[in-house]
Write a structure and sequence with these properties.
Layout (H helix, E strand, L loop, with lengths): L2 H10 L4 H7 L6 H21 L7 H21 L2 H4 L3 H6 L7 H7 L3 H5 L1
Helix pairs in contact: 1-4, 3-4
Length: 116
Amino acid sequence: MTATDNLFATMARFSAAEEFLDFFGVQYDQAVVNVNRLHILKRFRQYLQKEDIAAESEDMAVKAIRTLLERAYQDFVRSNAVTEKVFKVFQQAQGQSDVSAENLRLTLPSRRARIG
């Protein structure tokens, strides 16, 4: 079991943004967390997925993860959920949407209808 295995096992038991912030010693404004808790956690997860946290010691892993959590929190101190577009609903609100070629093809008139 690696140093990060224990840390991630501990984190898996957390269910609130405040638990993560308290555990990693990130100072926070409760009002910011109240409005953005899910956005902060989603962004934190995105940052974790981009990094390879394979530290030699648990202390090093804690520092690395704390930095990512602090970064995720600060994103919403400096900005807001609509601007950061963490969730798909905000991406779609800005006109960003995924449309498959197959769905697009299905909306076009059939070739036979145009020929006949």
